[in-house]
C-alpha cells in the first residue's frame, strides 16, 4: 500500500511543480483558517468575560478581532520556534 519514497506523486506527475504548489497552498490554507478560527474563539470567550474584555475588541467596519488575531499569531510563533530551543 505504501511506497518507499515519499515523493511518488512527484515522480509520476508530468509537472512535479504542481505537486509542490498544491502542498504549499493546502498547508497555507489550513494554517490561516486555524489562525482565524482560534482568534474568533478567543474573541467569543472574551465576550463572555472569561478573559476580560481586552481580547473582545474588534474593528468596527469589518468586525475582525484584531487583538485576538495578534495574540493567536504570537502563540503560534512561540510554539513553532520552541522546538528549536535547547534546554540543556
Task: Compose a concise summary of this entry.
With 88 residues, the protein is mostly helical. The chain has helices spanning 8-12, 16-47, 66-81.
Question: Can you describe this structure?
Answer:
With 88 residues, the protein is mainly alpha-helical. The protein has one domain. It contains three helices and no strands.
Descriptive tags:
0% strand, single chain, mainly alpha, 88 residues, elongated, 60% helix, 3 helices
Number of domains: 1
- What average pLDDT do the residues reach? 77
Radius of gyration: 19 Å
Query: What is the percentage of strand-forming residues?
Result: under 5%
Order of helices and strands: HHH
Distance between the termini: 41 Å
Number of strands: 0
Tally of contiguous helical segments: 3
Largest sheet features: none
User: Judging from the principal axes of the Cα atoms, what is the shape?
Assistant: elongated
What structural class do helix, strand and pairing data support? mainly alpha
**Helical percent range?**
55-70%
Report the uncertain regions.
none
Amino acid at each position: 500500500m505504501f511506497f518507499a519514497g515519499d515523493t511518488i506523486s512527484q515522480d509520476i506527475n508530468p509537472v512535479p511543480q504542481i505537486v509542490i504548489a498544491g502542498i504549499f497552498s493546502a498547508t497555507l490554507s489550513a494554517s490561516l483558517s486555524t489562525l482565524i478560527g482560534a482568534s474568533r474563539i478567543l474573541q467569543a470567550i472574551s465576550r463572555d468575560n472569561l478573559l476580560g474584555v481586552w481580547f473582545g475588541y474588534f474593528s468596527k467596519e469589518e468586525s475582525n478581532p484584531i487583538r485576538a488575531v495578534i495574540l493567536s499569531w504570537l502563540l503560534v510563533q512561540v510554539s513553532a520556534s520552541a522546538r528549536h530551543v535547547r534546554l540543556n
